[in-house]
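From the methods appendix. Each design record in this collection lists the discretized structure first, followed by the designed amino acid sequence. Records were kept in a plain field format so they could be parsed without special tools. The example shown here is representative of the layout used throughout.

RECORD:
C-ALPHA CELLS (350 positions):
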C-alpha cells in the first residue's frame, strides 16, 4: 500500500512539474503586441503600454506609403541562434532583444524605434547602453551583420530632417530621466540592447594592409566572347586580415563562373552580382579570384566600347569588428569590347 502511495505521489509530482514547465515556456514565448497610430499616422505606440516594464514604446516611420499592422515582441537570446556574434566589446543588457515586424510599406531609410528601459538602475549604467540592429548584409558570410543604430546628435545624417522635424529628432536623444533610448534604421527586424565597449575596439596594434590588382583578359575582347577577370589580393601588412569579402558587379557582361584559391564565390540573384568570402588572409600572403563572363553582343552599340566593372572589398582586424574606413576598398577597372568584323565577302554581298 505504501509503495502504491509513493508511486501515485511521484506521478502527481511529474504532472505538476510538466504543467509548470509548459507555463514557463508559454511565458518565454511572448505573443506579438500590436502597435496603434499615435499623434500622427506615421507614429505608432503600444496598444497596451506598461511603463514599468522594459520594451518598445514608440515606432516612427520616416516616410509611410501604405499603413498596415505592425507588431513587436521580446524574443530573448533564442532569436540569436543563427546570428553572428555581437560586435567586439559589446555585451547584452539583461536579455533585452526585440523583434519588430510590419506589413506597412515604407519608402525611407530613417525609421526610429524607441525603447523604454526602467530597469536601468543608475545613470552611469544607462550611459553605456547602445541599440544594435541585425541587418541583411550581402557582404557578410552569415548573410547578416550587426550595426550600432543608437540615435545620437553626433552621428546625424542631415537627410533625415526631410522626413522628421529636427525638434522631434533631438527630443529622442538618450535620456536617463525617462529611461528612453532610440535606434534609427532603414529596416526593422531584430534589435538588441547592449553595453558598448569602454573604448573603441580595433584601433590598437597594426592594421592589415590589403591591396588589389585587377586585370581583364583578353583585352580587348570581341563581342559575344568570354572574358576573364583576375583579382589578386595581397596583404602587405604584418597582421592577418579577417573575413575578407569581395563583391564584383558585372555591367553589360553575362556571368559564366567564379572560382578562388581559398574561400567560396557565389552569384547573388539574377543581377550578375558575384560575392566571394575569402576568409582570413595572413600578412604577406595573396589570394586570387577568377571570374569568367561573356560580353553581350546585343548591348554593344559601338565598334569599341569600354565597360567599367566595380569592385568592393571589406576586411577586418578580427571577424567581430565593425567595418571601418580602413577596411573598405572601392576599385574599378575596364574591359574593352569590340564588335566582330564581318568577312569581306559578306560585306560585299550586302
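DESIGN:
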Amino acid at each position: 500500500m505504501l509503495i502504491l502511495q509513493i508511486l501515485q505521489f511521484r506521478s502527481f509530482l511529474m504532472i505538476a512539474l510538466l504543467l509548470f514547465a509548459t507555463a514557463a515556456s508559454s511565458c518565454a514565448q511572448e505573443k506579438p503586441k500590436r502597435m496603434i497610430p499615435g499623434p500622427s499616422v506615421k507614429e505608432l505606440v503600444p496598444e497596451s503600454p506598461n511603463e514599468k516594464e522594459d520594451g518598445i514604446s514608440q515606432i516612427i516611420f520616416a516616410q509611410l506609403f501604405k499603413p498596415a499592422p505592425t507588431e513587436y515582441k521580446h524574443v530573448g537570446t533564442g532569436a540569436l541562434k543563427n546570428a553572428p556574434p555581437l560586435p567586439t566589446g559589446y555585451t547584452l543588457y539583461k536579455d533585452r532583444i526585440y523583434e519588430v515586424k510590419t506589413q506597412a510599406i515604407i519608402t525611407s531609410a530613417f525609421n526610429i524605434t524607441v525603447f523604454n528601459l526602467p530597469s536601468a538602475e543608475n545613470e552611469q549604467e544607462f550611459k553605456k547602453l547602445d541599440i544594435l540592429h541585425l541587418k541583411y548584409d550581402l557582404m557578410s558570410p552569415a548573410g547578416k551583420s550587426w550595426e550600432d543604430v543608437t540615435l545620437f546628435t553626433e552621428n546625424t545624417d542631415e537627410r533625415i530632417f526631410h522626413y522628421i522635424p529636427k525638434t522631434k529628432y533631438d527630443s529622442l536623444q538618450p535620456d536617463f530621466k525617462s529611461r528612453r533610448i532610440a535606434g534609427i534604421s532603414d529596416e526593422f527586424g531584430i534589435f538588441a540592447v547592449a553595453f558598448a565597449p569602454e573604448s573603441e575596439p580595433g584601433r590598437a596594434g597594426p592594421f592589415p594592409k590589403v591591396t588589389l590588382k585587377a586585370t581583364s583578359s583578353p583585352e580587348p575582347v570581341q563581342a559575344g566572347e568570354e572574358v576573364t577577370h583576375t583579382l589578386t589580393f595581397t596583404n602587405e601588412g604584418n597582421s592577418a586580415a579577417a573575413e575578407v569579402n569581395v563583391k564584383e558587379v558585372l555591367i553589360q557582361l553575362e556571368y559564366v563562373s567564379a572560382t578562388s584559391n581559398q574561400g567560396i564565390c557565389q552569384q547573388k540573384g539574377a543581377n550578375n552580382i558575384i560575392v566571394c568570402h575569402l576568409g582570413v588572409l595572413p600578412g604577406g600572403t595573396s589570394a586570387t579570384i577568377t571570374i569568367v563572363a561573356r560580353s553581350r553582343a546585343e548591348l554593344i552599340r559601338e565598334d569599341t566600347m569600354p565597360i567599367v566593372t566595380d569592385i568592393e572589398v571589406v576586411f577586418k582586424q578580427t571577424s567581430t569588428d565593425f567595418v571601418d574606413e580602413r577596411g573598405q576598398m572601392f576599385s574599378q577597372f575596364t574591359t574593352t569590347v569590340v564588335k566582330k568584323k564581318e568577312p569581306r565577302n559578306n560585306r560585299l554581298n550586302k
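APPENDIX NOTE: The longest helix spans residues 2-28.
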